[in-house]
Amino acid sequence: MVTKAKVEGGIDVVALGELLIDFTPNGVSEQGQPLFERNPGGAPANVLAALAKLGCSTAFIGAVGDDAFGHYLSGVLAQSGIRVDGIKYSAEANTTLAFVHLDASGDRSFSFYRDPGADHMLRTEDVNREQIDAAKIFHYGSISMTHEPSRTATIETASYARSQGLLISYDPNLRLSLWDNEALAKERILEGLKYADIVKLSEEELLFLTGTSELEAGTKLLCEQFASLSMLLVTLGASGSYCRAGEVTAAHAGYSVEVQDTTGAGDAFLAGILYGLLTRQAVGQSEWTQEQLSALLAFANAMGALTATGKGAIPSMPSLELIAELAGSSVISLA
């Protein structure tokens, strides 16, 4: 039976997905061995943490282990101002762990300990649909679709949110090591696109899904394939970002910062887009000008860039004051 508990007050954004531990490189020991710092992670949770830092009301739905890591993660989200009554503590598996490996430029790769992980264990009946009913935006990703039962819980909740008229935000967040094979990854990631209004891709993900890294052609192909897509965003790392909304496109060159760790930068970028939609009262907007899209990208790029200047995702999410320092106060008013 699907949960229908009473939810008090409205929610700007509710997200469903993985919540895990990121062990991030933090120097070496006296013996010359790498040291890792425990940080909260999981892309949907990162998006909410960034939004909560900016004053939005948020709620998280997902599963963690009934262990020290799981309770730590729930506590971090609660301290960040995120509602955590949608978290399930699973006795079936331990909290998922990810070790982050950083190269010289701060770009990262991951080693996951998730066979199974507690984040797999979210079931449809664990989802409190009253939280969906109370929200303006529903956000999800593809990592919760790699295994059952969380795959069905994700798809059915996205479908329900769409039926209730929420704006649907989706981040495919490709991590091939978590999938049985590339064909299955592509099939399920494309399935997730069926429900989405707002989608954020990396350059790698655009190439994976369309077979081209050409921004105009690739984004047009996906928007023609999925009629529900009203805004498709592509992050370009140090080169900024690109956006398509219908036939209107825009790009922003990004900001030059001293990068420490890019973990969570894309999540902060997407949070910046969602914040712009909420504060502009543009959650249901379907027609965009290039100037409007450029303003959204400028704000979102600033959020992503600032997040990359710290270590760990949630601890590095920027404030409006820091965004204004980097991008100018005019960007704040345009967001």
3D structure, described in words:
There is one protein chain. Helix content is 36%, strand content 25%. It has 335 residues and is an alpha/beta fold. The protein has a domain at 11-16 and 43-59 and 128-328: UDP-N-acetylmuramoyl-L-alanine:D-glutamate ligase. The strands form 2 sheets. A 9-stranded mixed β-sheet has the order 5-4-1-8-9-10-11-12-13, sandwiched between helices. It has a 4-stranded mixed β-sheet with strand order 3-2-6-7. It is globular. The protein starts with 10 loop residues before the first strand and ends with a helix. The model has no long low-confidence stretch (mean pLDDT 92).
Largest sheet features = 9 strands, mixed
Number of strand elements: 13
**Helix percentage:** 25-40%
User: What is the straight-line distance between the termini?
Assistant: 40 Å
Order of helices and strands: EEEHEHEEEHEHEHEHHEEEHHHH
Give the overall silhouette: globular
Going by helix content, strand content and strand pairing, the class is alpha/beta
As a whole number of angstroms, the C-alpha radius of gyration is 18 Å
The proportion of strand residues reads 25-35%
The level 1 CATH classification of the domain at 11-16 and 43-59 and 128-328 is: Alpha Beta
- Count of helix runs: 11
Mean pLDDT: 92
Strand neighbour order, sheet with most strands = 5-4-1-8-9-10-11-12-13
Uncertain runs: none
Please tell me the CATH architecture of the domain at 11-16 and 43-59 and 128-328 by its name: 3-Layer(aba) Sandwich
